[in-house]
Amino acid sequence: MKWYQLYTKQQLDEKARLLFEEQRQLKRLDGWFLIKEIQMDAGKNFERLHPEIRSARILEQVVSHLPLHINRNSIFAGTQNDAFAKSYALINPNFHVETFEGYCDPLAVFDDVEPNEIFTRERIEKTRGSYSQSAFVQELKKVYAETGDETKEVVYFVEQVTGHIVADFRQMIKEGIKNTIRQINKKIRIQKDPEKIDTYSAMKIALGACVKLAGRYAELAHEQSMVAAGTQRDELQLMEETLRKVPDSGAETLFEAIQSFIILWQVMCLEQSPNPYAFSVGNVDRIFEEYRAKDGTDRRLTASLFKHFLSFFNVGDRSWAISQNLILSGKSAEGKDLTNLTTYAILDAFYETNYPQPILSVKLHRQTPQELYREMGKFFFTPGCLTPSLFNDDSVFKVLERAGVETSDLKNYAVAGCQEPLIMGKDNGNTTNSWLNLGKILELTLNNGCSALTGKKIGLGFSELGLPENDPVGILRNAEEAFYQQLDHFLKKMTNAANGCSQALSNLRTPFLSAAMGGIETGIDMRNVNRQGTKYNGSGCLIHGLSVVADSFIAIRDLLNKRFEDAEALLEGLKDDFKGKEDLRQFLLSAEKYGNNSEKADEMAKNIASRISQQVALQKNYLGNSFRPDWSSPSTHLLYGYWVGAMPNGRHAREMLNYGLDPLYGDSHSGLGFRILSIQKLSFEKMNGGYASHFGIDPKNFPEKTPEEKGIAFYEKVVRPLFFVERDKVNPFYLYVNVNTPEMLRKVLANPKKYAPGGVYIMRIHGTFVNFLDLSPAIQNDIILRLDLESKKL
Amino acid sequence: MDHFDRIRIFQKGWNFGQDGPGNRLLYHFQGCNLKCPWCSNPEGIMKRGTLMVNKTRLLDAVCPYGAVSNQALNRELCRHCHTKECLDKNRNEGIRYSSTTYSVDELFEEICRSRHLFYSGGGVTFTGGEPTLQFNALRKLLERIKAESINAAIETNGTSSRLPELFRYLDTLIIDLKHWSSQTHNKVLGAGNQIILENLEKASDARVRTWLRIPLIPGFNDSYKDIIHFVHIVRSLNHGGLFLEILPYHEYGIVKWEQSGMDYKMGSKKLAPEIVSKAEEIFKMNQIHVITNGRGLL
C-alpha cells in the first residue's frame, strides 16, 4: 500500500502533533552517554587500525548496540535523541552571561547526565575518565592551556567544529547505499594510494552502518506489527517494508525518500555525537520535489507528511542551539527561479507546526515570485510564530564567486546553522572555528596591553605598539593604527589556536559524512588536516564589535579635535569605567554613531569592516586555505561584551557589544530608512563567511488587512529596499526579523498562560528559533532590547 | 555658497503615508511664523533654533559660566553666551541645539541616495516649522528634486504669498487651515488666514493635489459652528484633487515644550473622540473626501 493510500491528512497531522508533544515530555537524554561508552569500549579493540577505519568500526558498533525505539505516533523510524545531551549548550535556560570563561571543555557534557540508579556517578566518571585520556581531549586541552587569559577574557575564542555542515545525501537517497558502495569499489580498483584505499574502506563500513540501522528498525517494526491490529499494523508494515528497501536501495516515493534521509541523518549525527550542532539540510524543497511529483500528491497532503519530517529535528524539550537549518527556494546560476510546489508545502508544514526546530531560511532574488512573499506574510505577522531568515541570492552568488566557488555550485549554497553560506556536499567551512573580539582588542590597545577588568597583561603594551607611553594625546592620535597592530598580533595567535583545535578534532575522523561531502571523489576524509577531502575548505572567524569600535574611533577623533586636554582623562576613564567622569562620557556618547546615515561614522565602519575582513582572509588554516570573515555574533555579543571594559564611545564596562553588523542598541535613533542606508555602505563582497543583522519590526507599520497583503508589503518596505538596490553592486544578503514589540514580549513573560497557552512562543535569535519562554533572563532581555523602537520606525 | 544654499533643519526621519503618499523622507525646517500653542514640534518655532534640555542628563559641568545648576538651565545667561561650550567642547546628552545647517547639495545627495526607499509612491516631504521661511533654498532643492523625478511634497501653514511659485515642483501640497475666521487665526496664531485661503484657491486653479489639514483643537475650532464654516470653505474651493484630513488634538509635544524652555499653555484640554467622528461625518455628508493618516486616498 502506498503512503498516500494509508494515511489521511488528518491522521498525519494528529500523529505529528502527538509526536511533538511526547518529545517535549522527555526528561532524560542518555543515548549520547551510551554511545560514548560504546565508543570507549570499542575504541580499545580498534586502537591499531587506520584512524578512519577505526571511526567506521566504532560507528558500526554504535548502530549495532544502541537501544532503538519506535514511537507509536511515528510514521518514520529514526531519531536524533541519542546524539544530543539534555541541556548542554551555550544558550540554555540556566545560562548566565557571567559564567562564560572562554573555554570549550569537551568533558563538561558529562555534567549533563543526572546520576540515578542506572547511570550511577561511578559509571559516569569512569567514561569521563576514559574519554579524558583520548588524543582528542588531550590535544584540545593543550590548545586551551596555551591560549590562557587570551580566551579566558575572550580576546578571541577557538573551538573544534563538529556539525556545521550541509551534507549532500541526494545521490544516496536516489540510488541507494548499495550503489554508492559499488561506486566506491570502482574507485578502490583503480586507486594506488594505500591511504586512500583505507579511507574508501572506512566509508564502505560506515555506509554499511546505515543499512544495519535500517535493518534493526525494520526488525523492530516487524515485531511491533505482529502484536498490532488494524491500521496500526498496516502502518508498521509499511514502515518495515520501506526500511527493508531504503537507504540500501534507491527511493521511489516521497515517503521512502524521507525515510531514507532520516536514517542517513541519524547515522551522521551518531558519528559525531554528542552535540553535533548545526547540521543542515540544504534546499529541502529541491531534494524532495522529484519524489513528490512522482507520487502526484497535492500541497496539503505533502505538507502533512513533511510535518513528520520536521518532527524528526526536535530533540526532547531543548529548543535552543541545535540550529539545524532548512532552506527553501532560490535561483539557478542562470537566474531561473527554483521555487516549486514542495516549497509551499514545506512552508505550510512549518507554519502549522511552529516547532522550535528545525530553522527555516528562504532564498530570495529579483525574480522571486510574489506568491512566495504572500505566503511568508503569515509567518512574519502571526505573534509567536517562527519567521524565516532571508538570503539574497543575487548578492550571495557574487560573494561566493569572488571567493572561488564555481558557477555550477552556486545554486547549491545553503546555510549551516545560522547564516554562514556553504556549498552543499562540497564545503567544509569549519564555520565556528574562531571568534574575534574587536572591543577587547581596542581595550588592550588603549590600556598598555592590560585588561581593564582584571589588570592582567594580555596584549602588546604601548612600547611594543610604538605608542608614546607618557603622552595620552599621542596614544590616542595613533590609536587606530595601533589597534590594527594589536589585532594582527592576536590574529596570528587565534589562527594557531584554531588550527590546533582542528588538528585535535582530526583524531575523530568521519568516514560516513565524508562520503556525503565529496570524499568518494577525493578518497580523503573531510577531517584530514594534511590533505583536502572536500572541494572547498576554509575556517570561519566570527568578528564581534564593529560598531562599538567604529563609534569609538569617531569619539576619539572628536575628543582630540575639541578637548585634547582630556586625553589622559579618557584613558583613565577606560580603566575605571568613567568613574567621576560622566561629563566626559556624555561627550563621547553624543558623538556621531554608525547606523544613522552619518557620513563620518558610516565611512569609519565601512573601512574597519573592509580592512579587518581582508586581514582575517589573509590567515591560513591547517590546509593553507583562507579564514572566512563572518560578521556575526550568535548571542556572543552579550558574552564577549561582559569581558570588555569601558569603550571610548561611552559604553560602560561589561555592557553588551553590538549584534553582528548592527548599530549598538540605542545608537540608531533615526529610523529604519537611515539604518538601511548606513548598512548598505558596507563592503559585503568581502564577507564570504556571512554576517548577521536583525530588524525589529513594529507590526503597526503594516496596516494591510490579510497576512498575504502584509507579506507583499513586507517585500516592498523591507526586502526590496534592503536587498535589491543596485544591480551591479553586492547588496546586503542576510536579514532576520522579529515582528513584535517590547511590550508584547513583556506581556508574554508576565502571563505565559494567556499569551503562549501551549508553552511555546517562538522568536528568532540570531540564526535559530527559540522558545522565548525557554531562555535565560539575560537572553530574553537582549531580545527585548534589540527590538529597539527608535531604530525601526518606517 | 550663499545663505540661499543652506537650510536649517531641526529633525529628519522617515514615515509611511503620514505626510504624503508612500514611504517618505521628512525634513523638518527650522523656524515658524505662527505661534500655535498646541504645536507638537515647539523646538522648530524659533528661526535659528533653540536649546533643548534633557533634565535627567543635564550636568553642571557642561557650562563654564554656571548656567546649569541642579538640572536646570538659566536661559537668560545663554542668551548672552557666544562661545556655547555646551554644544561643542562640553557637548553632552543633557543639552542640544535643535537645528543643524545643511547645504542644498548635501540634502539633495541624501535624497537621491534614499531613492530606493521611496516605495509605494513615496518621496520626500519638507515640513517644519514652516519650510517656506527658507524659501529660496527650498525652491532650489525642489527644482533639483523635480529634475530627478522624485516625488516631492511640502507641508506648510500656507501663509507665504510666494507659495504658488512652488506648485510646479510639487506632487502633493499639504496645507493647514487652522481656523475659518481670519480674525481668530490672527489673534491666536499671530497671522490671519487670508493668504492661506488665496493659496488654496490658487492650488485649486493649478490642480495641485492637496491635502487640507484641519487640526481639531478643543475650545478653538471644534464647535459645530466651526465645522460648518470649514465645510463652506472647503466646498467653495471646488477642488477636484483635494483631500481633507482632520488632525485630532494631542499632547505629544508637551515634553518638548518643557525641553525647549517654553510654557505649554493648552492646560488640560481634551478633545472628545465623538467630536472627531462627528466632524468627519459632517464633512463626508457634504461630499468632502476625508482621509486619516494618509489612508483613504483614491
- Global Rg of chain B: 20 Å
E-strand count of chain B: 13
The share of residues in extended strands of chain A comes to 5-15%
The count of β-strands of chain A is 16
Principal-axes geometry of chain B comes out as globular
Strand order in space, largest sheet of chain B: 7-1-2-8-9-10-11-12-13
Residues in β-strands, percent of chain B: 15-25%
Number of helical stretches of at least 4 residues of chain B: 8
Our measurement of the CA-to-CA distance between the termini of chain A, rounded to an integer number of angstroms, reads 55 Å
> From the helix content, strand content and strand pairing of chain B, which structural class follows?
alpha/beta
Largest sheet of chain B: 9 strands, mixed
What's the pLDDT, averaged over the residues of chain A? 94
The most extensive contact between chains is: A-B, 26 and 27 residues
* Radius of gyration of chain A, whole Å: 26 Å
> Which structural class matches the secondary elements of chain A?
alpha/beta
Give structural attributes.
heterodimer, A: 794 residues, alpha/beta, 8% strand, B: 298 residues, nine-stranded mixed sheet, two-stranded antiparallel ribbon, 8 helices, 13 strands, 27% helix, globular
Structural description of this entry:
The complex is a heterodimer of chains A (794) and B (298). With 794 residues, chain A is α/β, with parallel strands linked by helices. Chain B is built from eight helices and 13 strands. In chain B, helix 3 (135-147) links the parallel strand 8 and strand 9. Chain B is globular and about 60 Å long. Chains A and B meet through helix 24, helix 27 and helix 28 of A and strand 1 of B.
SSE layout and pairings?
The complex is a heterodimer of chains A (794) and B (298).
Chain A lengths: L2 H4 L2 H17 L5 H15 L5 H15 L55 H12 L2 H13 L1 H4 L3 E3 L11 H21 L3 H33 L3 H16 L8 H18 L10 E2 H12 L3 H13 L13 E5 L11 H13 L5 E6 L5 H11 L8 E4 H10 L10 E4 L3 E4 L3 E2 L5 E4 H9 L25 H6 L1 H27 L5 H5 L3 H4 L13 E2 L1 E6 L1 H17 L4 H10 L5 H8 L9 H19 L9 E4 L5 H7 L29 H8 L14 E4 L9 H17 L10 E6 L2 H9 L1 H4 L6 E4 L2 E4 L5 H9 L9
Parallel strand pairs in A: 2-3, 3-4, 4-5, 8-10, 9-11, 11-12, 13-14
Antiparallel strand pairs in A: 1-9, 5-14, 6-7, 15-16
Helix pairs in contact in A: 2-13, 3-4, 3-5, 4-9, 6-19, 8-9, 9-10, 11-12, 12-14, 13-14, 15-28, 17-19, 22-25
Chain B lengths: L5 E11 L6 E7 L21 E3 L14 E2 L2 E2 L1 H5 L15 E3 L2 E4 H10 L9 E5 L7 H13 L4 E5 L15 E5 L5 H8 L4 H12 L4 E7 L7 H14 L4 E7 L5 H6 L13 H13 L4 E2 L7
Parallel strand pairs in B: 2-8, 8-9, 9-10, 10-11, 11-12, 12-13
Antiparallel strand pairs in B: 1-2, 1-7, 3-6, 4-5
